[in-house]
Sequence to fold (584 residues):
Amino acid sequence: MKSWTNLKRAALTLAIAFSLTGTLSLRPSGTFHAAAASRDPVRARRGLVASTSQISSQVGVDVMKRGGNAVDAAIAVAFALAVTYPAAGNLGGGGFMMIRMRNGNTVAIDYREMAPSAAHRNVYLDKDGNLLKGEGSSTVGYRASGVPGTVAGMELALNRYGSGKFTWSQLLEPARRLAAEGFPMGHILASSLRGNDYLSKYPDTRRIFLRNGNFYSDGEVFRQPELAATFARLQRFGPKEFYQGQTARLIVNDMKRHDGLITMEDMRAYVAKERDPLRGSYRGYEIVSMPPPSSGGAVLLEMLNILEGFDVAKHDWASSDRHHLTVEAMRRAFADRAEYMGDADFVKVPVAGLIDKGYADHLRKTIRPDRASTSEEVSAGRPTGYESEETTHFTVVDAQGNAVANTYTLNDSFGSGVVAKDTGIVLNNEMDDFAAKPGTPNLYGLIQGERNAVAPRKRPLSAMTPTFVLRKDGSLWFTVGTPGGPTIINTVLQVITNVIDYKMNIQQAIDAPRIHHQWLPDEVVWEPYGLAGDTQQALTSRRHKLATKPRYMGDAQGIMIEEKTGIRLGATDPRRSDGLAVGY
Ligand code: DON
Fold:
């Protein structure tokens, strides 16, 4: 049904584009940049939620219709996604919530996981100093989890920025009900669970998600009674229950039984933090994004600063020239990410220097128009960190103009693979975002820097980049974010330049094919159908190295405010088709 609607909308969009613009070939190349979108943005007068789950978007809209603000709605959406999108939505993970109140006050809530106190620099090495693999490593099983931050983050957001019209318990209720009564499992979730070997290793995970091999099919009702009971405890006893009550004890007891790292003391010590967002600008538009422990805001601003000095829009969007400049900006900013970034509460991160326009001028001069740099010449050759598989972003704007951009994650799809016994909670494997062995390739063949080494209570470096872009009068223009590990920052970059340089609407900007370069490995990742054969050739002849196989990246969600009408325009990523913006 939905794909048919999408198809019709896409056809309509194309038809409108043609009828408004006349004959395409009359436009001189390089000035006409309109792209067909998979659909028109969803339009709403008052409040709107764009998330990767239509059911969860609706939960947020219901809260706003009953008088809640964007923050109330975001909290309800975050809990609902823990039920409807369990690969990434979570209670057992962490993330970042950027909040912009209608008066312009903007804050970043950091509820990133913290390393347990038993974690230390070499915790993922064997006695010979080699990286551990499998159980015991930073990627799977009980020892891979950091102390979850989501519950504390939502509590902080509600206490500081909620409307006061909704209680904690009311905002958890839609999630509890979805878990208790179930919801029809969508195609994406059902198919991702089939043949998912690593989930079958843990008994509770196998029983809940794989039904011990009797896999769920599309549309079958999926209930999660233990998770519903956990929500009910959190409703009854409040957020502290998660960190000090029965839920904490259940998680910690399971940790003890399986040689995990997290203790009751670690749970009690978890703190979510309010931080000042990073601010920069691109062609006069203010960009407000996530500070450390995310690398997202700094790397994004560094890339935008580099690109700002080029007349990007004079190059046709699909040209090798545009791709060349974009890749070279990515290469340089990601080299800095690897060298300089980590949890700024623990190590010195020269953020101001990295996002300085003068520094970007210097970097821009090292970019040759005629050929690619090699990553060796851009730095001493220390590749950046690896992040993988599953995260989710959602975005909310309410009738008053308050806005939330939230990206949160378990890291990999279904995190560590572990569901803590009797809780229904999937635990993260965020510890793999640390450099498990600085200076040496990790399990994925990549290297991370010393500033991001493991230490007790430290937060692993992230790439999550929830971002606001403001109009020149200081009002909110659009907001965007996405999953995708290191590709996150580059997806946000490209959505921003698609809108600002190529005048795309928010849906077109999200739909448009993306590229990714992260310094090392020295290759340009591209999407299927994203680079024409002759563009590939032009890039290769400039000595860019293209990934041998294309692959899709990201699942961006965005909202733009229409300038003249104030209408909210919601866009979800066609790359994962369960998402839908819902508004009223
Ligand atoms: O915080 C980070 O940067 C990663 N843990 C995010 C992982 C991710 O986006 C996976 N999603 N596809």
